[in-house]
Structures are given as C-alpha cells and as structure tokens.
Design brief:
single chain; about 400 residues; mainly alpha; about 80% helix
Length: about 400
C-alpha cells in the first residue's frame, strides 16, 4: 500500500503537466497551483489513510533536499561579472528591499506571535528573492508548520497573480515614465535563447531515452551534495551541540549546488533545472495532501496583511532605489519579476516589454535569487528569533 501511494505522489505531477500542456484552462492555472489543488483534494476527501503519513514526510524531505542543488547546477558565476552593472545593482536593490520590508513587518506584528512573524519574514524573503523552491526549503529548514506554509503559499499565489497582471500591463508605461529609458545589454541573443530553453516549462526532454545518461548524472550529483550536506550538518551538531541540523543542511545544500556549478561539465547538464522543478511539484503535491482545510479556513488575517505589505512595500522601495541610481525601467521590471515571481515568468515579461536583450539579465538574477534566498530567509528568521 505504501509503495502504491509513493508511486502515486511521484507520478501525479507528470499527469498534471500533461494536462497543462493539453488544456488551455490548466495552463492558465499553472502546474504548481494544480499540484496544490489536487493535493488538498486528496488529503481532505479521505482518500489518504493515516498510515501514509510517513511516506508523505519522507517524500517532502527527500524531494526538497534533492531539488535544491539541481536548481543551481546550471548557474554560471562568470556571467555575474559579464552582466550589465545596472542589472546586478537592481538585484541588490530587490533583495535589500524585501529584507528591509519583511524585517519592518516583523517588528510591527511580533507582539501577537513572534515565532510566526519570524517565519513569515523568512518565507517572504525566500519567495520574493527566488521562488517556491526557496519557500519550500525555508519551511523545511525552520520546521514551519504545514498549515502556516500552505496559507502563506495560497495568499502568495493570489497576490503574485495580481502583481504579475499589473507588471504586464499598467506597470510598463508607468515605470518607463518614472525610470530612465531602457538600455541595450551586452548579452548575446543566442545566449538568452539558450537560457529560455533551459528554464521553460517543457518537461518532455526528461522522458527521452537519449537523455537518460544526463538524468542519471544529475541525480548522482544531487545525492552526493545531499550526502556531503548531511555529513557537514552532523559534524556541526557534534561540534556546537546543536539541537537541530535542518537549517544548516539546507544552507549546505545550497552551497554545494553553487560549488558544483563552478565546473563546466556540471553547468552543461541543462536538464538539472527541470528535474529540480519536477521534484518541487512533487513536494507541493505531498505537502498539500497533509493539510486540513478546516484549519486553513481559520487563518489569521495578519498573514494576508504581512504578504501584501511585503510585496507592495518591496516593489515600491526597489523602484525608488532604481530611480535614485538611474537604473533603467526594463532592467528594474525584469529583475523585479524574477525576484517576486521567479525566473520562469521572466520570458513573459520580456515579451510584454518587447526587449529580448533583457532576458538573460532577468533569468540570471532570478537564479542568483534562488541561491541567496535560502541564506537570507533562514538567517533572518534565526536573527529575529534571537532578539526575543
């Protein structure tokens, strides 16, 4: 029975991806939201017995641990210095803005529940510098309750949709009026196209027999990164008498993912990102299947207020800093979208801007955000908790 449910959790995201590919309504909703919806339906319809709880726990921990390094294997650090200075500056502003706003919101709400507020600040920083993988990693690293995580993600999905609609429509003329005119980037069009091929939502290459060798290599490297991270975390636990190693393990996984990406042969494993994102979809499905909707219905309105403030406040502060330093409008918008919504949404923004030269900057800053999000989110939470 447990094997059957394990296979079900692992294969359901593939079926949902097929649905996204074939049905226009499903494509509008998106694979991640569908995984959450199906998971919630399964978990609250009495279709998953209590004996499967251990499978759910093991899968949620394993998928996020293996996915994190995979998402970073294609990162090219040399591109950081080759990018336009303004794009890097805009990334710094986006990151600084969300950390500042999330910290401010923590101090405004900590009187009610300091631990919950620190978790909200950490998840806000993680998801609004990188994306869902960071959110999932921070949930595991800080042992955030499933119900709080799911409410956060549900509200974030709604706010993210509103934000993206705004950026694709009204924001373009607004920010092109407020900020300097777009500039030409040094990146080559073919390099940008290669990035688009790596980060799009077509997962069919994972099923091709010709790619089995690459899939095996990515999995082996990710397992190696996980083994080294667990060893490092256990060593730290013994040396410093720590109670939990979850946060250290997540940070080490991120570090080893970046370290492995320094090798050209690792960066050439273009399917690594898709494999990592597929595991994130499995994680979303499994976590949603553990949630109790009756609990979600009673969530504290402060969560919605916190997220609304984090999104709007960080975007406004980011835009203000770009205005003061003369960062151009298109650079601001692609880096903002890559931070708030994650890299897969950058091509959509670039198309709306009609500026293909902005694609590489948006993609690269988004992947850097993935790398930074875990460090910043977990570190911020631990710092804020130490103040009490």
């Amino acid at each position: 029975m447990l094997i059957v449910y394990t296979i079900l959790f692992l294969l359901l995201p593939a079926a949902l991806l097929w649905l996204v590919e074939k049905q226009r309504w499903a494509k509008r909703i998106g694979a991640i939201v569908l995984c959450y919806a199906v998971g919630l339906a399964l978990g609250n319809a009495g279709l998953i017995p209590g004996s499967v709880e251990q499978v759910q726990t093991s899968l949620s921990e394993a998928t996020i641990a293996l996915a994190l390094p995979m998402l970073l294997f294609t990162l090219n650090i040399k591109e950081w210095s080759a990018m336009a200075a303004k794009a890097l500056l805009s990334l710094v502003f986006a990151t600084t803005s969300v950390v500042a706003i999330a910290s401010t919101l923590y101090f405004l709400t900590a009187d009610d529940n300091a631990v919950q507020s620190s978790h909200l600040a950490a998840m806000s920083v993680g998801v609004y510098t990188g994306g869902t993988p960071n959110l999932a990693a921070i949930k595991s690293g800080l042992d955030i309750p499933n119900d709080l995580y799911l409410v956060f993600h549900s509200v974030d999905t709604l706010l993210g949709s509103i934000y993206l609609l705004f950026m694709l429509t009204l924001a373009i003329p607004l920010f092109r009026w407020l900020l300097p005119a777009p500039i030409e980037f040094d990146s080559q069009t073919n390099a940008a196209a290669d990035k688009l091929g790596t980060y799009n939502e077509d997962y069919s290459p994972l099923l091709k027999s010709s790619n089995l060798s690459q899939v095996g290599k990515v999995l082996a490297l990710s397992v190696l990164a996980l083994g080294l991270s667990i060893a490092g975390a256990e060593t730290s636990k013994a040396l410093f008498n720590l109670e939990s190693t979850a946060a250290i393990t997540i940070m080490l996984l991120t570090s080893f993912g970046i370290l492995f990406s320094l090798h050209a042969r690792v960066r050439s494993l273009k399917l690594a990102y898709k494999m990592g994102m597929y595991l994130i979809l499995v994680f979303c499905l499994v976590i949603a299947s553990t949630a109790d909707l009756t609990t979600l219905a009673d969530f504290n309105i402060i969560i919605a207020v916190f997220l609304f403030g984090a999104v709007t406040g960080s975007v406004i502060l980011h835009a203000l800093l770009c205005k003061l330093t003369k960062v151009d409008s298109d650079t601001f918008m692609v880096t903002s979208v890559s931070a708030i919504c994650s890299p897969p949404f950058v091509p959509m923004m670039v198309k709306a801007l009609n500026n293909p030269n902005a694609l590489l900057s948006g993609m690269t800053t988004g992947i850097i955000g993935f790398a930074l999000g875990n460090y910043l989110g977990i570190s911020l939470a631990l710092f804020l908790q130490s103040l009490n």
